Amino acid sequence: MSLPHHTPVLLQEVLTILDPRAGETVLDVTLGLGGHAEAFLKLVGVNGVLIGLDADVQNLRLAESKLHALSGRADCRHANFSAIADLDLPPIDILFADLGLSSPHVDDPARGFTFREEVPLDLRYDRTNGVSAAAWLAQVPEEEVARCLHEFGELPSSKRFARVLKERKPTTTTAVVLAAESVYRWRAKAVLPQIFQALRIAVNDELGALETLLHEGPSLLRPGGRMGVISYHSLEDRRVKQTFRVLSQAPKHPETGQNVHPPFFTLLTRKAIVPSEDEVTLNPRSRSAKLRAIMRSVSTPS
Ligand SMILES: C[S@@+](CC[C@H](N)C(=O)[O-])C[C@H]1O[C@@H](n2cnc3c(N)ncnc32)[C@H](O)[C@@H]1O
Fold first, then answer.
1. Domain tally for the chain?
2. pTM, 2 dp
3. Could you read off the pLDDT of 218-239 as tens digits, one per residue?
4. How far apart are CA 119 and CA 19, in angstroms?
5. How far is the CA of 25 from the centre of ligand 1 (A)?
6. How far is the CA of 95 from the centre of ligand 1 (A)?
7. CA distance 275 to 293
8. How far apart are CA 215 and CA 172, in angstroms?
9. What is the CATH number of the domain that holds 193?
10. Which residue has its alpha carbon closest to ligand 1 atom 13?
């Protein structure tokens, strides 16, 4: 199976900050094409384990074939990371997430994420679950469509565009493009990425899944374990930043306000790590990436 071209984002920074060591257990909840996972697996070696999840079964199979060709133990599972608490996972040394879509989603029109070609309007990472973008638009009330377009895509005139989408009931990407042209005229081309981003976030419940990951993930870490997340837009980064900040504060007594315990987690990134100019030049898709990480204190009970 030949792999589409893919460059893992912030790879060196991820390895420096999360510091995978021989014998460790790594959980990569967004395998994609296995770019980061391959580097993790090489570093944990034959005594370590790499557990990889992806909601997209096509990506999962591609990553699996790449990882199984290496020495080392790779356990690849078709799963959404929102189900992380139900996957019967062992204690983890490194939990890593590289959010959003992968290069094949953008580059291969057959994956249904592009607005540059006419394909069925789907936008799901996992087509075995949930509903397509076309079905979602048909099902949800106009106000909800408008809210998603406004919140997830920061789209101007979101109410008017939501009304047009509800009237036209688009079932292909081209039908959405035509609807956008009818509302936004010459500005349509500029807002199409925002429209498709908003629909993708809604259909995959991306922010709900991230909140579950941020809620459940840290407790899977062994003492000394590290968790790192790369996000690509402010809606994601805000949630990661806020959760990691709260986790790295000392718990306080509700009445006295005194610290009752040292913090259970330490911030490994005071400020988000962003790609260098060189990386952005070589891989323009990395330009909005932000990496944040925490470490579970060694002294916390397992
Ligand atoms: C940016 S790519 C990961 C790229 C990967 N780090 C690499 O180097 O090849 C994100 C991947 O996460 C998957 N994904 C997105 N949301 C997910 C979720 N909630 N659960 C599991 N996988 C998800 C997508 O299908 C995609 O393959």
1. 2
2. 0.94
3. 999 999 999 999 999 999 999 9
4. 42
5. 19
6. 13
7. 15
8. 36
9. 1.10.150.170
10. 30
Whose tokens are 């081309």? That residue is 189
Are residues 52 and 187 located together in one domain of the fold? Answer: no
Dist CA 117 CA 173 (whole Å): 7
Domain extent at residue 285: 11-104+207-296
In a domain, 157, yes or no: yes
Chain centre to alpha carbon of residue 90: 22
User: Widest CA span of the chain, in angstroms?
Assistant: 62
What pLDDT, in 10s, does the model give residues 11-29?
999 999 999 999 999 999 9
Q: Is 291 close to ligand 1, i.e. is its CB under 6 Å away?
A: no
Which parts of 174-271 are beta strand (E)? 221-231, 265-267
Mutational pocket test of ligand 1: of 125, 214, 230, 231, the residue with most ligand atoms within 8 Å of the beta carbon: 125
Pocket test for ligand 1, best of 30, 57, 89, 229 (most atoms within 8 A of CB): 30
Of 203, 218, 247, the last residue of a domain is 203
